[in-house]
Amino acid sequence: MELAQLLSVARRWWWLVLIAMAIGGGYANYLSSQSTSTFTATTRMLVIPQGTTLNDLNTSQRLAQTFATLVTLRPVMEDAIAAGDLNLTPDQLRARLSVDNPNLTSFLDITATARSADGAINIANIVADAFVASDGVGIAQPTGTVEIVETAVRARENSESATTNIVLGVLVAFVGASAVVLVIESLDNRVRLSTDVFNRTGLPTVGQLQRFRASGGPPGQLQVVMRPTSPVAEEFRAIRTNLSTRIDFEQEAATILIASPTGGDGKTTVAANLAVVFGLAGRSVVLVDADLRNPRQHEIFGADNDTGLTTVLNSPTADLDRVVRRTDQPNVSILPAGPIATNPSELLGSLRMRQVVEELRRRFEVVLLDSPPLLSVTDGTVLAGVATGAVLVLRPNKTQVEELGAAVDALSQARKPIHGVILNQVKGRSIRQLHAYPEDRVASEGRWNVEEPAQFDPDLPSRDRTGS
Q1: What is the rounded distance in angstroms from the CA atom of residue 244 to the CA atom of residue 247?
Q2: pLDDT over 90 (residue 91)
């Protein structure tokens, strides 16, 4: 997973990881408060080899190591239990003991653990006395003697650090939550980033459009008109620039199909705004509403739909000039869908449709075709055959990888280039918005947003460059 994908995952799931860490730390703190403290006490003994002096360290050290293994033998444990009237079995008593030969000296340290300080002191001293009385379980007298040089008089409390437990709880929760998130992400098959699109299809992303709320009905969807200096308007200008680098408008008129895999991806709004920004760049544009099943371009531009594309497709003698309408936007005309037809696929795939598109290409520099969803009906695939290229509109976090692949396959059947992909309704602020000039502010959805100045584009007239 690349860094950009990891950052995207972190932005979506930070709240879950944070909650898990809070729960993990809280639970660890609760366990720490409920845990019972234990106490340890140590009795120290000295091992003296038989027939040698204290200076014979090598002999005493070896003997101390031997005696260290004899202290916890069952006979010693049984003697200690009997002497101290301990309510323990030999195995239970052995579990509470540790015998060490510190730094390979002649000393033996018997350390006992209990839930009370007195209990730990009592056990350590009783076991030491029992071992001394046992004569090293039958071998002490021939080899050496053991003497208690320091009885246990104090016990040390062994309380777990609440801070350490909390830190460990938070870390465990973080790792666990991160693992769950990665599993969820691996099972999620939605398109999220431009890298997802490129890795799956090899197609470039020519633009990313953030979410916006249209105001004032369908005409409010023309963001480049309603909010000409907003980040969304600048992104549409950037898409125009990116498409202009891929399409040679000087060579011949371009017929661009604006398509999407499924309904609700926003291709109609994208097509309308692209028509306006191409017109602002001084190019003559006609937007053809080829969605004969659910036409909406006439609503966005405030035109009637009494006659339109179906009119000229059903009547070879229909005058194209009577159905193509000029709009209030500079250099932009639209060809509405017209009355609903019962055979839209057949009309769009007819010879007459090719003739209409060729006539429009002779009159306009840019012909934009707004089509129905590619995976719902065959109309989009049919339209790809009369276009010179296509642009695919996707919605991140909605479009499935399978839908993206099927849409690309549908467009590829026409053997026309796919100029790129537009990611629509992207959450969060774009790079342009993050680097906006402070003075470029407009009211949007009841909030003051920092807007970015118009991107410099050599195709734009000076009035459009200033955003005025």
Answers
A1: 5
A2: yes
Name residue, tokens 């014979």.
56
CA gap 96, 80 in Å, rounded: 13
**What type of residue sits at position 367?**
V
Lookup: tokens for 286:
């006609």
SS3 259: strand
Amino acid at 152: A
Please give the Cα distance from 292 to 349 (Å, whole number). Answer: 12
Least confident residue range of 142-146, 350-354, 428-432 = 428-432
- The DSSP bridge pattern shows strands 107-114 and 332-335 to be unpaired
Enumerate the domain spans of the chain. Answer: 3-35+160-187, 38-158, 194-466
At 320-371, the pLDDT tens digits run: 888 999 999 999 999 999 998 888 999 999 999 999 999 999 999 999 999 9
Strongest mean pLDDT among 3-7, 52-56, 422-426: 422-426
Q: What is the DSSP letter of 452?
A: P
The two structure tokens encoding residue 187 = 């099972």
Tell me the fold of 38-158: Alpha-Beta Plaits (3.30.70)
Neighbours of 68 (CB within 10 A): 17
Architecture in CATH of 194-466: 3-Layer(aba) Sandwich (3.40)
The residues near 337 (Cβ < 8 Å, ≥ 6 apart) are 289, 290, 291, 292, 295, 297, 298, 305, 308, 309, 310
Q: Smallest Cα–Cα separation from 49: which of 106, 130, 132?
A: 106
